[in-house]
Write a structure and sequence with these properties.
Length: 244
């Protein structure tokens, strides 16, 4: 080990040990994001309109100047019809269609440092899967404002591996979780994780897309109250129908 550079003897500066987890840096992510946008022929304003993410945020992310939180990169992925695994696959790894067991060896997930989380994405070699599993280290220590709450379609599960966290919801509810505790909830509700233990907490998190039942419930037409409908029918029969 070279005491001045911190690298192993015989390694060139900047090289990573073979057993080090692959890391997706901001510059690489920004390049992938810009390439995907250009493929559609969209301007920054058009992508902002389709994703709900501000022009400034997209521009800074594309230039590698900003790390995105889960809500924003999930929204951009949906707008660009870009599989999450394609966004976070390791360098030179093209995700293949999910048609069999997918193994991620210990420490071999793709690491991305977000705003309040350090994510290790698992199973990134499988395209089209319904769940996005991660091992996350919670860096946030407090809630600074409404912008800290993430919202995205689907459901979310969190299991605490070490340390303790609080999960804050924009409804005002706060759930405290210690090692071994878990939580499952509707991720369209605003939520934010905070480490409250001395050491930063580590969790296993899984997010899923919106289920068919959830989508059907959200898109179901609003029915008139049965009593009102009954009155309208009776009025028509007696010829006393009013304004509809």
């Amino acid at each position: 080990m070279n005491p001045h550079t911190g690298t192993k003897t015989g390694m060139k500066p900047g090289m990573k040990p073979k057993d080090e987890a692959p890391t997706l840096d901001r510059t690489t992510f920004g390049h992938r994001l810009r390439t995907a946008r250009k493929r559609f022929g969209w301007t920054l304003a058009q992508l902002a309109e389709r994703s709900g993410v501000s022009i400034t945020t997209i521009s800074r992310a594309e230039r590698g100047q900003l790390a995105l939180g889960y809500e924003n990169f999930a929204a951009l992925g949906r707008a660009l019809e870009m599989d999450m695994n394609a966004m976070f696959a390791g360098a030179g790894v093209k995700p293949a269609q999910f048609d069999g067991p997918v193994i991620t060896r210990a420490g071999k997930g793709v690491v991305y440092r977000g705003l309040s989380f350090a994510y290790e994405f698992l199973g990134t070699s499988a395209a089209g899967k319904q769940m996005s599993p991660v091992v996350g280290t919670v860096h946030a220590r407090r809630i600074n404002g409404p912008e800290d709450f993430a919202r995205h379609p689907g459901e979310e599960f969190a299991y605490v591996l070490s340390g303790e966290i609080e999960v804050h919801f924009d409804t005002g509810d706060v759930v405290h979780l210690a090692r071994g505790d878990s939580l499952y909830y509707d991720s369209s509700i605003g939520h934010a994780y905070v480490s409250v233990s001395r050491q930063l907490a580590k969790i296993v998190g899984v997010t899923s897309g919106e289920s068919g039942h959830m989508k059907s419930a959200r898109e179901a037409p609003v029915l008139k109250p049965a009593r009102k409908v009954a009155r309208n029918v009776a009025a028509k029969k007696t010829g006393r129908g009013g304004k509809g």
